[in-house]
Amino acid sequence: MTDIRLLRGRVFIRPTGDNYGYAESLKRAGLVMPQNYEIERTQKGQCVRGIVVAMGPPAFARDQETEIPPDFKVGDEVLHLGMNDSRWVMWNDERLRACAQEEVLGVIER
User: Under a CB-based contact definition with an 8 Å cutoff, are residues 20 and 70 in contact?
Assistant: First the structure.
């Protein structure tokens, strides 16, 4: 097994569960989405959930001096933006989603 050092603000996520039926869980969690949200998002991707498997150092703020520490860590189940099919990577025989730290919307707590 080979290790990887992700660059600043980058995250690898292992997709989990039924990503298409997740809207009902969001409602139970108290998140209210506009009715046209899913229609708009499915054209470019959708919100999906997964387990964070690797992270780079924190992203920088716009001033390029201040780090923005993420509110999640490796092992957390998160909801993130699945923007398009070009964001898939194969690493150690596993298909993972590559995304930026700011594309992680929240941590799923049980």
Answer: no
Q: Is 85 helix (H, G, I), strand (E, B) or coil?
A: helix
Each residue's pLDDT tens digit in the chain (110 positions)? 678 888 999 999 998 865 544 455 555 555 555 544 443 343 455 778 899 999 999 999 999 899 999 999 999 999 888 765 557 888 888 889 999 999 999 999 87
CB contact at 8 A, 99 and 89: no
Question: Is 0.85 topped by the overall pTM?
Answer: no
**Domains, the chain, with CATH or none:** 10-107 (2.30.33)
Beta bridge partners of 82: 46
Tokens of 69: 């520490």
